[in-house]
């Protein structure tokens, strides 16, 4: 119990404990909030049930084992009140309350006082500590058996600092397991500790930051020697003023299992930015733009992921069940979102709108630039690592300073490709060319291509001209008119064969990734194996081919200029 600002003597506190009608059934020292009385031994006060123990009535324990209250070599009388002055306020706590959480600063001090009192019959001194009395009032309630809930992050830090200073292990453990108190952008948050306990989210800004700032149960206040510490160091409340409270509230709702509703691309970008800031890796992979659906035509489940959102740990390679002569040891690249998906799906990689992809129909290869080239190279190397393929970099470069990371980003530095990546654009690919739907027909007919036919090596004329239009014809074609002066007509699907095209610039592209045996011809077959992924059993080298799923492209520089917008 704790008294008011001033208590005249110990008789007042002792009289409060003079209660004989209450007793707890399953008593433990931690549950004791008031002092224990000695049980009557004879006369009318003896129990009426014939037992040598008093009758058990809900309330205060009247008799118990004194060893329950022992702390080290000494013991405090549970019925005796001890004076503790915190700052300007005087408190009185019973021995039972002091011993309910210990060994502590208080129990050690008063046990020493009791030993001196027994030796020289001197008075028990008042313990004076220059700390905050308002915080200690809550600690008194804890010692009396009440469950203490912090009001906010500042109150939490004060309770924790004083619990460490007074050496109260039960209160320290309670605070470690309680909710997380923080302030985001000036808005206070109280977060259940298991909110971010899912896979990939447990080691986050709050758990790691709290341990670094305050410490652990065993090591409080990192960097300071607790023994002999005059007072705990000042610990600022956890506050993050430069992040959005609205975005953080959305992350809390998502982590609690509510549907993830993305309002717009800016909202998604803000969510991902804060996921990276707080270390919510599992939640980040849930928020990444993706689409998972079953493809009945291919009898498999597919996942569409942006190239920049693919992480190495989710990439895998699945070979064909029965390799054919056309594609020995071939297979498709799969992906599963780390910490989220339990199975992997055939991946369709989406390469975004940076205009960094150029397709050459004369060689059926794609050339990448900028960040896209670096990401493609990293993805190809990851696939090669999953297939346990040897590196094709020169030994001197591998042993030089920086190793493989010092090599320029290029698909040619991976075992599965040259600098320009082989592509396959079939009749099933959906293509928008210069704003019009286009049907690819490499043989000049409307027949489509089967799934495993490879047109990437179809011989083409060396100087295939790009169709050129006069300014009037180009304006007429792009505006929807069939001929100058003619009536407007709807946009028609364009059909074309491979020998009509030179280069396309890809604005958006979706590609499947297939690993297959490299098709080699004539004298170049020996040299082409050098530096490529080589399978000694089949005697073939492997390469990655990008199979087009959906493309949005422009034909040459004129089409690129047509798609260029005005600067706002």
Unreliable sequence segments: 1-73, 444-492, 521-531
Rounded Rg: 38 Å
Total domain modules: 3
Residue fraction in strands = 15-25%
Distance between the termini: 71 Å
Q: Helix amount, in percent? A: 25-40%
Tally of strands: 22
What is the global morphology? elongated
What's the total helix number?
Answer: 15
Taking the sheet with the most strands, its summary is: 14 strands, mixed
Structural class: alpha+beta
Mean pLDDT: 74
Description:
- This protein has 568 residues and is α+β, with helices and mostly antiparallel strands.
- It folds into three domains: 134 residues, no CATH class; 131 residues, 2-Layer Sandwich (Potassium Channel Kv1.1, Chain A); 215 residues, no CATH class.
- α5 runs antiparallel to α6, α8 crosses α9 and α9 runs antiparallel to α10.
- The longest helix has 17 residues.
- The chain starts with 9 loop residues before the first helix and ends in a 5-residue tail after the last helix.
Please outline the helices and strands:
Elements: H1 10-16, E1 70-71, E2 74-75, E3 81-86, E4 89-94, H2 95-99, H3 105-120, E5 127-129, H4 133-143, H5 153-166, H6 169-176, E6 180-184, E7 187-191, H7 205-213, E8 239-240, H8 245-255, H9 265-278, H10 281-287, E9 290-295, E10 300-306, E11 315-319, E12 331-335, E13 345-351, E14 357-360, E15 365-368, H11 370-386, H12 395-399, E16 421-424, E17 430-433, E18 436-440, H13 471-479, E19 494-496, E20 503-517, H14 524-529, E21 533-535, E22 540-555, H15 556-563
Parallel strand pairs: 3-5, 6-8, 10-13, 16-22, 17-22, 18-19
Antiparallel strand pairs: 1-2, 3-4, 6-7, 9-10, 11-12, 12-13, 12-20, 13-20, 14-15, 14-20, 15-16, 17-18, 20-22, 21-22
Helix pairs in contact: 4-5, 5-6, 8-9, 9-10
């Amino acid at each position: 119990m704790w008294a008011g600002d001033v208590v005249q003597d110990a008789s007042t506190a002792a009289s409060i404990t003079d209660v004989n009608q209450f007793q707890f059934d399953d008593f433990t020292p931690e549950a004791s909030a008031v002092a224990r009385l000695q049980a009557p031994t004879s006369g009318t006060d003896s129990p009426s049930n014939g037992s040598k123990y008093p009758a058990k009535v809900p309330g205060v324990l009247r008799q118990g084992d004194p060893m329950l209250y022992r702390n080290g070599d000494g013991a405090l009388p549970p019925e005796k009140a001890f004076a503790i002055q915190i700052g300007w306020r005087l408190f009185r706590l019973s021995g039972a309350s002091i011993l309910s959480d210990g060994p502590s600063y208080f129990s050690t001090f008063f046990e020493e006082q009791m030993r001196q009192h027994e030796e020289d019959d001197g008075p028990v001194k008042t313990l004076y500590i220059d700390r905050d009395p308002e915080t200690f009032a809550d600690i008194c309630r804890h010692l009396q058996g009440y469950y203490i809930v912090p009001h906010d992050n500042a109150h939490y830090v004060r309770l924790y600092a004083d619990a460490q200073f007074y050496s109260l292990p039960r209160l320290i453990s309670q605070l470690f397991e309680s909710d997380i108190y923080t302030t985001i952008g000036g808005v206070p948050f109280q977060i259940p500790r298991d909110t971010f306990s899912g896979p990939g989210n447990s080691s986050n800004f709050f758990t790691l930051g709290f341990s670094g700032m305050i410490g652990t149960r065993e090591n409080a206040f990192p960097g300071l020697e607790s023994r002999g510490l005059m007072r705990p160091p000042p610990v600022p409340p956890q506050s993050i003023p430069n992040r959005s409270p609205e975005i953080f509230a959305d992350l809390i709702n998502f982590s609690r299992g509510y549907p993830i509703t993305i309002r717009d691309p800016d909202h998604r970008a803000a969510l991902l930015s804060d996921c990276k800031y707080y270390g919510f890796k599992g939640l980040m992979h849930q928020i990444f733009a993706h689409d998972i659906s079953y493809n009945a035509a291919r009898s498999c489940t597919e996942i569409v992921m942006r190239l920049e959102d693919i992480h190495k740990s989710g990439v895998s390679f699945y070979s064909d069940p029965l390799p054919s002569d056309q594609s020995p040891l071939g297979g498709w690249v799969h992906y599963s979102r780390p910490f989220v998906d339990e199975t992997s799906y055939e991946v369709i990689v989406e390469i975004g709108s940076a205009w960094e992809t150029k397709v050459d129909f004369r060689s059926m290869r794609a050339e990448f630039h900028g960040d896209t080239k670096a990401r493609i190279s990293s993805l190809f190397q990851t696939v090669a690592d999953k297939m346990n393929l040897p590196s094709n970099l020169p030994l001197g470069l591998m042993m030089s300073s920086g190793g493989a990371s010092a090599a320029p980003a290029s698909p040619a530095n991976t075992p599965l490709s040259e600098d320009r990546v082989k592509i396959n654009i079939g009749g099933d690919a959906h293509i928008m060319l210069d704003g019009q739907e286009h049907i690819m027909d490499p043989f000049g007919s409307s027949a489509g291509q089967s799934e495993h036919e490879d047109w990437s090596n179809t011989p083409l004329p060396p100087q295939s001209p790009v169709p050129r239009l006069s300014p009037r014809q180009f304006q007429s074609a792009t505006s929807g008119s069939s001929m100058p002066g003619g009536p407007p007509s709807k946009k028609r699907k364009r059909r074309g064969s491979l020998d009509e095209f030179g280069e396309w610039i890809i604005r958006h592209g979706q590609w499947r990734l297939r690993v297959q045996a490299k098709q080699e011809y004539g004298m170049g077959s020996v040299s082409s194996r050098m530096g490529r992924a080589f399978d000694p059993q089949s005697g073939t080298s492997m390469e990655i081919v990008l199979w087009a799923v959906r493309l949005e492209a422009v034909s040459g520089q004129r089409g690129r200029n047509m798609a260029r917008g005005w600067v706002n």
